[in-house]
Design brief:
alpha/beta; Nucleotidyltransferase, domain 5; 5-stranded mixed β-sheet; globular
């Protein structure tokens, strides 16, 4: 590992117009009913938790897309990260197909201060960014957005608020199965 490098944990997730359902309260004997539209529209999001070289500050970066995320969107997101983080940046993510290939190799050749590392296969419990998805989906659970635009706004507000809370971001890292590395 390079000294003084930002460590960034990245991942992607999708959010459907059909809400995630979680346990909820209802009067005894009355099953709660969540009415929703049977539309299968979705929002794809790529996000990253960054840990500053001094390991004191955690940041959340995200891009939202109305379609599936491909190499082009990943490169755009990496460019966004590099625009906000100074010095060397080490991105750790899964072995997804969109994290490999010529577009990514070409991007790496253009940006020598960026290094990409992969988690072991089938190990989402190691990625702290999974905590972002868990918190976001819990926050949106049992809701009923009427349109993809409403879902977009709720999701943006949720992720933005999470990014403003060092406690929420620290919880994402602490819930992972990574060895403790934060002070």
């Amino acid at each position: 590992m390079r000294l003084g490098a930002h460590i960034v944990f990245a991942d992607e997730s999708g959010f459907l117009l059909i809400p995630p359902v979680r346990k909820t309260w209802a009067p005894r004997g009355q099953t709660p009913i969540i009415k929703h539209l049977q539309k299968h529209q979705s929002i794809s999001v790529i996000s990253a938790l960054s840990v500053s070289p001094q390991r004191k500050r955690i940041g959340l970066f995200f891009h939202m897309h109305g379609q599936n995320i491909h190499h082009e969107e990943v490169c755009c997101f990496l460019r966004h990260l590099l625009g906000h983080l100074r010095g060397h940046v080490i991105v750790v993510w899964d072995n997804g197909g969109i994290h490999k290939g010529e577009p990514i190799r070409s991007f790496l050749r253009q940006h020598p201060r960026l290094r990409l590392e992969a988690f072991p296969p089938y190990a989402p419990e190691l990625n702290p960014d999974e905590g972002v998805w868990s918190q976001a989906k819990n926050s949106l659970a049992n809701g009923r957005p009427d349109s993809i635009d409403t879902l977009w706004l709720h999701l943006f507000d949720t992720l933005y608020a999470m990014g403003c809370s060092q406690n929420d971001l620290r919880a994402c890292i602490q819930q992972s199965d990574l060895p403790t590395f934060l002070p």
